[in-house]
Every structure is written in structure tokens, then in C-alpha cells.
Amino acid sequence: VQLQASGGGLVQARGSLRLSCAASGPPIKTYAKAWFRQVPGKEREFVASINYDGGSTNYADSVKGRFTISRDNAKNTVYLQMNSLRPEDTAVYYCAQSSTYQSPATISGAYGYWGQGTLVTVSS
Question: Do 58 and 96 contact (CB within 8 A), yes or no?
């Protein structure tokens, strides 16, 4: 399974971006997907996760109410709609796919497949 993230870029504070992550290879539709982010010099942190059918989600407190994760199993793709962006949201965003968890896990160890990352820069 290979994950390809896209949609990052430069945006002003209070703006919006939509990230996409398409999976190729054998479809893994029955397991959780997630987004994490990382700033240079800091550990990768959880952003949002979604269960296998999209019926359950989890969010980091820092993005709750501003970000929305969704998935389209027919397209084997997960999305992250980011609204009301802040400079502190600036990071490389990574999509992740689990092959063991159906529920929306929040720990990086639950995910065995990772995309290459897409940079989001929010200017003040």
C-alpha cells in the first residue's frame, strides 16, 4: 500500500485548505485512517482519525471544531478539511493507514502505512 498526500500550501491565517490522501495497492477499506503533523525539532503529533466506515472520528483538542476528517472508501481516499487556520498549524502533515485498527486510534503506533507528507504553511 502506498499513500500519496496532496493539498498542502501557503495560506493566510483564518484561511482554509483541504488535504487529500489517496491509497494505491490493495484497498484497505475496513481499517482506520488518520492525519498526523510534525514541526521540525518536535515529535509527530496526532491531528485526527476516522474509523473504517466514517462513522466515528477523533480529533486533537487543538483542532477540534476547525478541522474535519472524512473518507471515501470507493476512492480509497481520506480528506482533512482545515478551516480557521492559525500560524501554529504550520507543519508537515502526514496521512496514515492502519491494517489492524478499525476504530479511530490516536497513537502513531496503530498505523503501519504512512504518506510522504505535505507542507502546510499558515502566515499571520
Answer: no
Question: Which residues in the chain come in under a pLDDT of 50?
Answer: none
What pLDDT sits at residue 26? 73
Q: Give the start-end residues of each E strand in the chain.
A: 2-6, 9-12, 17-24, 33-38, 45-50, 57-59, 67-72, 77-82, 91-97, 113-114, 118-123
Residue 30 has what pLDDT?
80
Cell of 70: 472524512
Q: On the CB side of 112, how many CA atoms lie within 13 Å of its CA?
A: 7
For residue 109, give the C-alpha cell: 503506533
User: Strand pairing partners for 4?
Assistant: 22
